[in-house]
Amino acid sequence: MAIREILEVPDPRLKQVSKPVEVFDDALRTLVADMFDTMYDAPGIGLAAIQVGVPLRVLVIDLQPEDPDAEPQECTAHGGHSHTHRPTRKEPRVFINPVLTPVTEEQSVYSEGCLSVPDIYADVTRPARIHARWQDLDGTMHEAELDDLMATCLQHEMDHLEGILFIDHLSRLKRAMVLKKLEKIRRAA
Ligand code: NI
Fold first, then answer.
1. Does the predicted model carry a pTM greater than 0.85?
2. Rounded Cα–Cα distance for residues 104 and 61 (Å)
3. N or C: at which end does the chain have fewer Cβ atoms within 10 angstroms?
4. Angle at 159 between CA 157 and CA 165, to 5 degrees
5. Beta strands 46-48 and 129-135: pairing type?
6. How remote is the CA of residue 112 from the centroid of ligand 1, in Å?
7. Confidence at residue 9, expressed as pLDDT on a 0 to 100 scale
8. In angstroms, what CA-CA distances link 134 with 27, 97, 101, 144?
9. Rounded CA gap, 64 and 87, in Å?
10. Shortest CA distance to 119 belongs to which of 188, 49, 17?
């Protein structure tokens, strides 16, 4: 297992359309394990294989929900004053060759970010509920109806497989502003 380099805009590889996985072998297992390592290290809640330069239809997601069974912990990380928060638990999900279909007209808006567009967040509107079909690491087919953050995250990651970034959903003006801001942040770093 290893942490891989995450491609960032404007790397042209992020515009590639990823190919279906046909062989469910050890190389695929290694890729997925590395993607989890890379995502947790970043840290992020979702990652597509193309973000580490591999043009295959593979996504990993972990929304890392709060753990209702864990003791709340004291935290002084934010500006010195202490507060308590619940530790999160890991809930790793792998989606191979996913196919998504909206099941409602209803839309939801989330402030999205992306490990390939660092430090930028913007509101994106997407279908609120989707039907998803995908394969796991053994090639077994699964399906489920998903909503809320999982629906948003899966659609965001799915876009990566088509070479689409969340900023591509913004108006041209807004996208130009966002890219300018990103350039500024990079120059300052
Ligand atoms: Ni992303």
1. yes
2. 23
3. C
4. 95
5. unpaired
6. 9
7. 94
8. 19, 6, 12, 9
9. 9
10. 188
Of all residues in the chain, what percent carry a pLDDT higher than 70?
96
Q: Spell out which residues have Cβ within 5 A of ligand 1, the ion.
A: 114
Residue 111 CA, ligand 1 centroid: distance in Å = 12
How far, in Å, is the centroid of ligand 1 from the Cα of 97? Answer: 17
Q: Which residues contact 66 (CB under 8 A, 6 or more apart)?
A: 85, 86, 87, 88, 89
pLDDT (average), residues 35-47: 97
pLDDT-derived band at 115, boundaries 50, 70, 90? very high
Please provide the average confidence, as pLDDT, over all residues in the chain: 93
Q: Domains in the chain, please, with CATH?
A: 12-188 (3.90.45.10)
Segment 61-65 mean pLDDT: 92
Phi, psi torsion values for 104, nearest 5 degrees: -150, 155
Distance CA 157, CA 164 (A): 9
Rounded mean pLDDT, 65-93: 77
- Active-site positions read 157
How close is the Cα of 116 to the center of ligand 1, in Å? 6
Ligand 1 centre distance from Cα of residue 74 (Å) = 31
Ranges of H-type helices in the chain = 26-41, 148-161, 172-188
